[in-house]
Write a structure and sequence with these properties.
The chain is built from two helices and 34 strands. A hairpin with a 2-residue loop joins strand 23 and strand 24. It is mostly beta strands.
């Protein structure tokens, strides 16, 4: 007979070991030790963290954090899903301890046609040297194949990859981690000192710092409300979400003009778990129409769903339901649209992949949550607020992105931080094996 007390004790021990390992890693990342040792191989995954899909299909991008310092740098890599191989010639070296990875094409909302769409750009951050990395993707190589190659000079990329440095002496904090993109630029969290910063993309493609805000209990993830433009930021050491708006010097709300002065202010705070005296919120994201907010809570191992529709004075931010997950959640992602849902035009061009995901009956607006400790991806129906699948994927799942294969069947790609692999999931609604692991890379 299983002793429930012993079982709970062992779970607590595993949780403490996991927490200790993560804390040790963060402390190591903060040490700023000089990078020595071997150059990273151009075709080997090593503690992959962020993963993102090319909006035109075929290619997956990922960043290697090299969390154990086995190599003297991290990297951004490209995986060809048709040839089923990493493209070593496309690998770009970056600093150690990468944060999130984003791909995006911004779009001028005041015009129509291809001329309004900007170049495809990859963004990531490196916490060891406090860099924001911008990589311009070559759209003329192999159907937008994202060849990221650039010349290396003294450990930094010259050319396609641009490094913006922000250290303790600058106007903003070190330790960048989370990001959210919109038509004007980037929101970024700095976990070390609990800072949210705002960056604008200039017409040249360069990023320009605008303003920053200190938050009382750290900062982990950030998501942009599709309708209001407000930034939602999860605590690093607490159970709150801070809702932040960008204002002009005289207080009026501004969407943002590159280079203009601005200030950030908290306009609302959501207490995720009022019972817990400690804990943390993790990833969060919105539905495509901005009516629902999904938040991962590691304190009680749940996904919380909020009403984020716009009411008098702003989003309602009212709790609708709680879905127990059975493990410590990490990131939250949404695939496509719910029935009768219409995506808000937020100025981001999602290409053919986004159009496919938004096709009725494909992505279905299902919510995917990675459980880092359990080695599982949980799939939730947000309308029923029920789990529809639990997919065992491997050790340390962190991020997930969605991409159709060459036949149009929907696949999910999950970064396995502890296994140095990418898990490939069958997510095709027409498949008998939907919600199953079908391959790992490499």
């Amino acid at each position: 007979m299983i002793d429930p007390v012993s079982t709970r004790t062992e779970k607590m021990r595993r949780s403490l070991r996991l927490a200790s390992a993560l804390v040790a890693g963060l402390m190591l990342a903060a040490c700023g030790v000089d990078e020595t040792g071997f150059n990273p191989p151009a075709d080997t995954l090593w503690f992959p963290l962020g993963v993102a899909a090319h909006p035109d299909g075929r290619y997956i991008y990922l960043n290697n954090s090299v969390f154990d310092r086995r190599f003297n740098a991290g990297s951004v890599m490209v995986y060809d899903t048709e040839e089923r191989r990493i493209l070593p010639d496309a690998t770009v070296e970056i600093g150690l301890f990468a944060g999130e990875l984003l791909l995006g094409r911004t779009r001028d909302a005041d015009c129509t046609g291809d001329a309004c769409v900007g170049p495809l750009t990859a963004y990531t951050v490196t916490r060891n040297n406090n860099h924001l990395v911008r990589i311009d993707i070559d759209a003329d190589v192999g159907n937008g194949a994202a060849h990221l190659a650039c010349e290396q000079s003294n450990g930094a990329c010259a050319g396609d990859a641009v490094f913006e440095n922000f250290g303790l002496e600058g106007p903003i904090s070190d330790d960048p981690y989370g990001m959210a993109i919109d038509r004007d630029g980037l929101w970024m969290t700095h976990s070390g000192r609990g800072v949210l910063s705002r960056w604008d993309v200039l017409s040249s493609g360069a990023l320009e710092f605008r303003c920053a805000l200190n938050l009382p209990a750290g900062a982990t993830a950030v998501a942009r409300h599709p309708t209001s433009g407000l930034a939602y930021v999860t605590d690093r050491f607490g159970q709150r979400i801070h809702v932040v708006e960008c204002t002009a010097p005289f207080g009026e709300f501004v969407a943002g003009v590159a280079g203009d002065p601005c200030s950030l202010r908290v306009v609302d705070t959501i207490t995720v778990d009022p019972i817990a005296d400690r804990g943390r919120t993790r990833g969060l994201t919105f539905s495509a129409d901005g009516t629902l907010l999904y938040v991962a809570s590691s304190t009680d191992q749940t996904l919380r769903i909020y009403d984020a529709t716009i009411g008098t004075g702003g989003p309602r931010n009212r709790l609708l339901g709680i879905v127990p997950l059975g493990g410590f959640p990490n990131l939250v992602r949404v695939a496509g649209l719910r029935a009768d849902e219409v995506r808000v035009d937020d100025g981001i061009d999602r290409g053919t992949v986004g159009a496919l995901l938004d096709t009725p009956g494909v992505g279905e607006g299902l919510v995917y949550v990675t459980l880092f400790d359990a080695g599982v991806v949980v799939v939730i129906d947000p309308e029923l607020m029920l789990i529809v699948a639990r997919i065992p994927v491997g050790d340390g799942p962190h991020d997930i992105t969605f991409l159709p294969d060459a036949t149009g069947a929907l696949r999910g790609y999950v970064s396995l931080f502890n296994e140095h692999r990418i898990a490939v999931l069958d997510l095709d609604p027409a498949s008998d094996d939907r919600f199953s692991l079908i391959a790992t890379v490499p």
